[in-house]
Each structure stands twice: as structure tokens, then as C-alpha cells.
Amino acid sequence: MNDHDEDLALVRRALSGDERAAKMIYSLRPLLVNHLISRGAPPGSISDDAVADFLGDCFGARQRSSRTSTNRLLELYRGSGPLIGWLKTSCWNRFLDSARGHTTSPLSDQFDEERGDNASPATAPAEPEVIHRIAAALEYAFSEIDPTTLIFL
Q1: Domains (range + CATH), the chain
Q2: What is the pTM of this model?
């Protein structure tokens, strides 16, 4: 037995359909939103939507990559640490992946054929949503810094 057996039991109950356990996990949503904002994510709908998408993925709301063994992210929690810590880290990593434009879909088999042998790898154009998220995060970060500190940067 370890200190996090209760967290693991809560996750297992939630994944097996226990509505009360699922609500307990969903009740952590404000903490996750605040965590994203404290790490530099823009406040408002971007952070709220990121957490909502993450929690949905925890319970399998969206289909994930064919390379994964599960469609429910919570099945990856093993109880080796506190559930809230796992949720915060996983949510932040998911936010960073989406901000960077990473997708979880596998590469197509035609990728090498389309490139050709002599083609050099090209940088994918940034999507408008990613550009907006980055700009909002930078704007928020600079608004939190004292103007006199900015002079010395």
C-alpha cells in the first residue's frame, strides 16, 4: 500500500462509471485552470477550453492516436504520486503540445512518397489559433512584469 491508493481507487471508480467519483475529479477543474494560468497560459477561454478538453480526454471524450493503448487518459495514472499532481502535469503538457501544434494522429504512409528523395524538410506554417495562443500568452506574461524590470531586459 502506498499513500496514493485512495487516488488510484477514485480513478478506477470514475473510469468504471461511478458518477460521484467522476464529479470529484471534474471538481478539480478550477485548480487545473489556475495551474495553467500560473505557468503562463493566457487566462480566459483558452485555459478554460484546454482544461475542458483535457478532462474530456481523461474520460475518453475524443478518439486518440492509433498508437496509444487507451482512449482514456486517466487509465495512464498508476498511483505512484498524488492524482492532482499527475493531472496538473498532464494538463500542462497537453496545453504545451497544443500550443506547439503537435497532433496525436499518426503519419500517413504517403509521407515519404510526397516528399521525394531530394526534398528538404519544410517548416509547417503556424496555425492562426496557435499564433493567437502564443501572442496571448506573451501579452499576459509581459503584463505581469513590472515596467521598470522590462527596461533591464
Answers
A1: 5-105+128-151 (1.10.1740.10)
A2: 0.60
